[in-house]
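Lab notebook, bench 4. Still working through the backlog of constructs that have no structural model yet. Next entry is a single chain of 149 residues. Request: give me the structure tokens for it.
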Amino acid sequence: MNDLPRTAVALHLLTIETLLDDLIGGRTVALENGPTLALDDGPRSALDWYRRNRDKWSGNLRGDDADAIVDAVGAAPPPARSERPPAVARPTRVLRLARVRAHRFAGLHSYGCTGEDTHFVFDAGKPVTLLEGVNGSGKTSLANAVCGV
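Model written out:
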């Protein structure tokens, strides 16, 4: 193993690139609810082979690919990249949906109304909202109205 400090970084803070860098570099990754993950030298070298051969992540491997992975496992692990600065914790913002008002947005309108007052209005009175309905009833249209799509 290397002599780098093994400070665990939370998995949800990593991209696929930084996750690969950390695991291949011998750093520890913190999983949800406390457990951590670190790789020994052999798996680190094999994972580095896959990082360098991204086209091999899916599909069948050829015999020469399997030989290359076996050779990688037997080789010394790659040198660790330099440590990156620790992530800065930001305050968590909580947004609550209060109301959705739409006028013929993606088919959202007040059912059965005629004339100009066909606005669809949804007031979210509870902290959790469950949308249920058959195909074509407007679940996705409502979600798109909230997201501004």
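Notes after review: The chain has two domains: 9-74, 94-149. The CA atoms of residues 11 and 19 lie 8 Å apart. Flag for follow-up if needed.
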